[in-house]
């Protein structure tokens, strides 16, 4: 019989949310997962599954039962001919990347962080950039899931197709994902080129940039006109890098954290810091070449608060200029760098922020130097208002203030997802405080 542990304290990576589950489980088989769900049903307990704990929100928090799938972390099958891989739900993408490399395969797109579990990364709609690429969930071709009743369902385009379009972004609300099958591509290297520009140049030539690079994104530095453009494209060139530990870590991490801590006492320094670091680290053209997953992944620096909304791609210029204008009209409100803008192809996944539309994601950030919180409520509220105004949808893993009435307006497939969830989990076993705000 699987045993639950008392006294476990859960905290997410940013240490902004946490909880104290009554029992903490680490099953190693589907049979043990079923035992946990049976016990929860008998005792009227709720259950939440946690992956890598990187979500900067309370989506994984619970005071009842918590399941961590890190012992269900095997690669089950590699089909080189079809270029597909089937893995257990708890496998970290960092381990999957290494395993795929051994077989000459890779995922076609990855987010900034690979210390995330296979089921978790699709559960919240993790994305990267590239207008020809969808969110990471679009790389999933099949999965298996255990429902609250203990039944195991197999889902794909040809098997439980409607459920599949819900499960590929499940919010942890439909059941416990057991296995995931990803569509891969042949292993490839990427060349990343970083160069300086201005907000006017990038926004006026957005269409050109979108088609100039397969994985284009840009970083705007609030309180300035400065933009850093990043192009990433497949290459056959050998690995190389013009970056260095001193600039990336000693300056880009340790010095930045110290200066932002100082600025928490003297907020007027933030615009100067944003300008200084752009001049110091982002004005020089930098190139690096490496295996795709090593280029896709990058250091998120230190602890932070994050918001990230998807908006119709044609609204990118209006939304960013309105945010810039609002900050200029409210000079006492400070905003850390960067505001990151990425681009994603539309899809048909019911709760995907890119449902039925090509989108841009506008990510804002406020760091927590040495764990210290900084005032952000006014900035956060203004940003959310702009995002809603242009038809935005929040990233499910990030903190936001939206409730069911918002989601009913934002998502044409929301009611269908709710019907599926209520059928699979009629007693609300997989709900928590976060999901209650979504569904009630």
Task: Summarize this structure as a short list of keywords or feature phrases.
440 residues; alpha+beta; 9-stranded antiparallel beta sheet; 14 helices
Structure characterization notes:
The protein has helices spanning 30-43, 93-102, 118-123, 161-167, 199-204, 206-212, 245-265, 270-282, 292-296, 316-329, 377-389, 404-410, 414-424, 433-439; strands spanning 10-11, 18-19, 23-25, 47-50, 65-68, 75-79, 84-88, 105-106, 140-146, 152-156, 176-183, 185-186, 189-198, 217-220, 226-235, 240-241, 286-291, 304-312, 339-344, 359-367, 393-394. It is of the alpha+beta class and 440 residues long. The strands form five sheets. Strands 16-17-13-15-14-19-20-18-21 form a nine-stranded antiparallel beta sheet, sandwiched between helices. Strands 6-7-11-9-10 form a five-stranded antiparallel beta sheet. Strand 1 and strand 2 (18-19) form a beta hairpin. Helix 7 runs antiparallel to helix 8 (270-282) and helix 10 packs antiparallel against helix 11.
Q: What order do the helices and strands come in, and which of them pair?
A:
Layout: E1 10-11, E2 18-19, E3 23-25, H1 30-43, E4 47-50, E5 65-68, E6 75-79, E7 84-88, H2 93-102, E8 105-106, H3 118-123, E9 140-146, E10 152-156, H4 161-167, E11 176-183, E12 185-186, E13 189-198, H5 199-204, H6 206-212, E14 217-220, E15 226-235, E16 240-241, H7 245-265, H8 270-282, E17 286-291, H9 292-296, E18 304-312, H10 316-329, E19 339-344, E20 359-367, H11 377-389, E21 393-394, H12 404-410, H13 414-424, H14 433-439
Parallel strand pairs: 3-5, 4-5
Antiparallel strand pairs: 1-2, 6-7, 7-11, 8-12, 9-10, 9-11, 13-15, 13-17, 14-15, 14-19, 16-17, 18-20, 18-21, 19-20
Helix pairs in contact: 7-8, 10-11
């Amino acid at each position: 019989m699987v045993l639950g542990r008392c006294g476990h304290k859960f905290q997410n990576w940013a240490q902004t949310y946490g909880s104290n589950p009554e029992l903490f489980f680490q099953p190693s088989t589907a049979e043990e997962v079923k035992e946990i769900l049976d016990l929860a049903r008998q005792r009227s307990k709720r259950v939440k599954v946690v992956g890598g704990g990187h979500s900067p929100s309370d989506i994984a928090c619970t005071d009842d039962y918590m399941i961590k799938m890190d012992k269900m972390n095997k690669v089950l099958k590699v089909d080189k001919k079809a270029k597909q891989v089937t893995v257990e739900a708890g496998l970290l993408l960092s381990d999957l990347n290494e395993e795929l490399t051994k077989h000459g395969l890779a995922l076609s797109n990855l987010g900034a962080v690979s210390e995330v579990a296979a089921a978790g990364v699709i559960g919240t709609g993790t994305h990267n950039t590239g207008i020809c690429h969808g969110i990471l969930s679009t790389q999933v071709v099949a999965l298996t899931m255990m429902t609250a009743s203990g039944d195991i369902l197999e889902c794909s385009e040809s098997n439980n197709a409607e459920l599949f379009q819900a499960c590929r972004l499940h919010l942890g609300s439909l059941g416990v994902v057991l296995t995931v099958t990803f569509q891969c591509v042949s292993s490839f290297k990427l060349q990343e080129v970083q160069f300086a520009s201005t907000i006017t140049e990038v926004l006026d030539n957005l269409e050109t940039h979108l088609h100039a690079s397969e994985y284009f994104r840009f970083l705007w530095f609030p309180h300035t006109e400065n933009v850093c453009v990043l192009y990433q494209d497949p290459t056959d060139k050998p690995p190389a890098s013009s970056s260095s530990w001193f600039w990336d870590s000693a300056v880009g991490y340790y010095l930045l954290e110290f200066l932002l801590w100082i600025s928490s006492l003297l907020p007027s320094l933030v615009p100067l810091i944003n300008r200084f670091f752009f001049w110091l680290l982002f004005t020089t053209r930098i190139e690096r070449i490496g295996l795709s997953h090593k280029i896709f992944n990058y250091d998120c620096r230190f602890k932070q608060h994050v918001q990230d909304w998807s908006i119709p791609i044609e609204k990118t210029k209006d939304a960013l200029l309105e945010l810039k204008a609002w900050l200029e009209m409210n000079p006492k409100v400070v905003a850390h760098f960067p505001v990151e803008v990425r681009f994603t192809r539309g899809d048909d996944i019911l709760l995907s922020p890119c449902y039925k539309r090509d989108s841009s994601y506008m990510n804002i950030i406020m760091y927590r130097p040495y764990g210290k919180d900084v005032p952000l409520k006014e900035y956060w509220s203004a940003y959310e208002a702009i995002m809603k105004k242009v038809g935005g949808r929040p990233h499910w893993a990030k903190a936001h203030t939206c409730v069911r009435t918002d989601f009913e307006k934002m998502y044409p497939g929301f009611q269908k997802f709710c019907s599926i969830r209520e059928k699979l989990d009629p007693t609300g076993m997989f709900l928590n405080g976060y999901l209650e705000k979504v569904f009630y």
